[in-house]
Each structure stands twice: as C-alpha cells, then as structure tokens.
Amino acid sequence: MRTTPPRLSPLLLLVVLAAACATVPGTGRRQLKLMSLDQEMTLGREAYSEAMSSSPVIQSGADYEMVQRIGERVARAARKLYPNPARSFDWEINLIDEPRTVNAWALPGGKSAVYSGLLTITGDEDSLAVVVGHEVAHAIAHHGAERMSQQMGLSGGMIVAGLILQEKETDPDKAATIMAALGVGSTLGVMLPFSRLHESEADELGLYIAAAAGYDPRASIGLWERMASAGGDGPPEFLSTHPSEETRIQRLRKAMPKAMRYYNKAQREMGISP
Ligand SMILES: [Zn+2]
Fold first, then answer.
1. pLDDT value at position 204?
2. Nearest to 248 by CA among 199, 192, 194, 195
3. What value, to the nearest 5°, has the Cα angle with vertex 272 and ends 63 and 218?
4. What predicted TM-score, i.e. pTM, was given to this entire model?
5. Which of 19, 78, 202, 254 is 20 to 30 A (C-alpha) from 209?
6. 200 Cα: distance to centroid of ligand 1 (angstroms)
7. 16-39: per-residue pLDDT in tens?
8. Which of 37-51, 191-205, 219-233, 235-249 has the lowest mean pLDDT?
9. 173 C-alpha to center of ligand 1: Å?
10. Ligand 1 mean position to 114 CA, how many Å?
11. Phi, psi (rounded to 5 degrees) for 108
C-alpha cells in the first residue's frame, strides 16, 4: 500500500521556513521550535483567559497573598537569571479554589495557576515556591512550544498549526487542544504529560529560580517526596512522566550547590545573613 506524505500548507511552510532551532536558556540544549515568542505568548494569553473564565479564583486572604508574593519574587528572579525570554513575559499568577486538585501549571508567556489542593501538600512557602519555579521553568524553556513543534512535525502540521494560524476565536475545543499541547490541560480534562527530559530540565531550572527568589531550595527534597506519596489519581503534572523519585532526588542534590549559591546571594541582598 502506498502512502502519500502529509502535505504542508503554504502558510505552514512559511512558518517552518521562518523557524530556527532554538537553545534552551540555562541548559544550552538545542530544541525544535517552529514558532515565535509572540505566537507562544498569544497562545498562552488565549488559553489563560479561557482557563480563568471557567475557574473559581481566590482573590483575598493569606493564601492569596502568599501566592502573589511568590509570583512576584519568582518573576523577578527569572527576569534576572534568564532575561531572554523572561523579560518579555507578561507575568501573572492566580490561586484557583479547587481543594481536591493537587496541581499547578504555567503557560508560555509566564501566566500561571496554583490550585488550592496543592497547598495541603506543599505546606510551607519555600516548597510552594519550588513548585511555581518548576512550572515557570517549563515556560522559560519553551517546553509547550517545543512539544507543539514536535506535533507539527508528526502530524504534518495539520491540526496544531491550523489552531495556531487560525483567526482568534473562542472555541472551547480549540482551547482544550491548545491547553493539552501546552501541558496544562487538567482543568479541561485533557492532558498530554511533558516528557521526562522536560521534567528534569524544569526541576533544575525551577530550583535555581526559586533559590534566586530567596526561597530555600533544600525544601525541594521533602516536597517531591511528599508529592510522590500523595498518590491516588495523582496530580497530573507531577506524577505522570516524572523521573523516578530516586533519580529525581539524586538530580536535585547534584543541582543543590549551585542553587545554594543563588539562595545565599538572594539572602544577602534581602539583608538576611545565611
Ligand atoms: Zn513539570
């Protein structure tokens, strides 16, 4: 049986030709990225407003204030450590009132969300900051865009590229597909987990970001242990493809000396002696 190779539409061809291989900030890994930062940010904005319009958002109280504080400090640290792309980001964070959901995510462009159910596992502010750092690191490393680019390659570009290039419209199916491709689909019931490579990269960069924001990176060890034993249906972003707990802790320990240097520097800048 003969199969015809998938055809590229003229528009997609333009995108492919205009695209280049990119480099992940912080790790130097080469990645396939068939879209511009502007396109990533447009997708992020669209998916974010869709997610927020259908979620109960907490707008006051101690937890709200903690999440906003973490968001600000993490954004400041990310802009410092990884100015490209973090300085172009349109940072925003919200706390969603879903006590049974143990999850958090960030979209391309730096808009992120934390579910109230996560706070029962994180416990303290340092641990929550490590999670936010991890999520934001996915955005900084363009993991959503990389995955969408890989899908474009795999599917001949028909579905995903169509979504990107289409006129803006509010179509829940479209939003769900974009969210799933970006790795944050838990709100809409669709989820494509990030690869292990992406997870390890987000762990490492996220640790540096949280530390540079003045949060104790050592909190990450106990945090990921608690997260792994949270079990049940499992928080989708955290258990699906994450490296085994042992490998993960090993990698975190390896990254710890550099993270501690960022942490100590941040402490000094905040006038706290380590
Ligand atoms: Zn992740």
1. 95
2. 199
3. 60
4. 0.82
5. 19
6. 8
7. 444 457 889 888 888 888 788 898
8. 235-249
9. 23
10. 13
11. -55, 135
Spatial separation of the C-alpha atoms in residues 44 and 38, rounded to whole Å: 10
CA separation for the pair 34, 150 (Å, rounded): 9
Is residue 98 flagged as an active site residue? no
Query: With contact defined as beta carbons under 8 Å apart, do 93 and 109 qualify?
Result: no
What is the per-residue pLDDT across 211-244, written as a single tens digit (0 to 9) for each? Answer: 999 999 999 999 988 887 775 455 556 655 566 7
128 alpha carbon – ligand 1 mean position (Å):
14
Options 135, 146, 199, 204, the catalytic residue: 135
Average pLDDT over residues 158-163: 48
Tally of domains within the chain: 1
The number of CA neighbours under 13 Å toward the Cβ of 109 is 19
Domain that holds residue 81: 22-269
Task: Indicate whether 6 belongs to any domain.
Answer: no
- Nearest C-alpha neighbor of 131 from the set 55, 67, 85: 67
In-domain check, residue 12: no
Count the Cβ atoms, other than its own, within 10 Å of residue 65.
11
The candidate with the shortest Cα–Cα distance to 152, out of 255, 34, 268, is 34
- 144 burial level (CB within 10 Å; 0-12, 13-18, 19+): buried
Three-class SS of residue 180? helix
Q: Is residue 66 part of a domain?
A: yes
Strand order in the sheet with 111-115: 57-58, 92-96, 111-115, 104-106
